[in-house]
Specification:
Length: about 100
């Protein structure tokens, strides 16, 4: 249903006939880590997240998985290759 309070007209799974069913009966404002995210929307209570009612919860276990401004850095460690085994493998493939 569509939100009638914080983001009027915005489709929200927490909005029911009885009103907002999220904890505290309202979305919560974005937090510092959200700065720069494209999902921030201006609500009637100030800046809120358009996809998550509680930005604090989204960041409580690390990077928010909906964030558009930050990505997970994956470090690929150099794989140690034994040159002797690599040479034998390459030779075997040539046969
Ligand atoms: S998607 Fe995540 S980072 Fe972006 S505004 Fe929402 S809670 Fe904040």
């Amino acid at each position: 249903m569509q939100c009638q309070t914080v983001l009027p007209g915005h489709e929200c799974v927490f909005w029911k006939k009885s009103g907002c069913t999220f904890e505290g009966n309202s979305c919560q404002n974005v937090i510092e880590m959200c700065e720069g995210c494209e999902r921030i929307a201006e609500g009637t209570i100030g800046p809120v997240c358009s996809v998550a009612p509680s930005p604090l919860q989204k960041w409580s276990h690390g990077l928010c998985n909906f964030a558009t401004h930050r990505k997970v850095e994956v470090k690929i460690e150099e794989i140690k290759v034994n040159p002797l085994k690599a040479s034998k493998k390459a030779a075997a493939k040539r046969k």
